[in-house]
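Worked Example 4.2. Consider the chain below.
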Amino acid sequence: MNYTPKTEEQLAEDALLPDGTYDFQVMETDDRPSKKGNDMITLKLCVFDADGSQRHIFDYIAFGNNFGERKFRRAANACGLLETYNSGNLKAADFYGNSGKLLLKQRKGTDNYPFPKNIVADYLPREEGAPVITKPIGEIIDDDIPF
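Applying the procedure from the previous section yields the following structure tokens:
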């Protein structure tokens, strides 16, 4: 067996998507306090690249600062939930199964997480008239399973 030895950092970099715009679908949601004790929602996203391959990315939207509150509104808009957001009744669970577009960036490792990773830089506004698409989570895409 031939292979080229790689470090953990190189392996992490190889798994990253390039910076850019991607389609996503929300796979899981959670409400819990942030490390600072502020309200926070966690979104587990299935991000689709140009080839249709999927990657899972977590986004943590913490409240208590302008950036988190802006990101929450933009995520709601991307998922077609702006009306619910404007009503003041949007919950993390409302995002489940919804889809949209986002701007993905690469981030170098930090003291808290030493390896590079993809992060959601921003959620992109839903184009006017664009349908809200919800796909069943866990849908079988290829049914040519050999067993």
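The CA atoms of residues 65 and 128 lie 28 Å apart. The chain has one domain: 11-124. Compare this with Example 4.1 before moving on.
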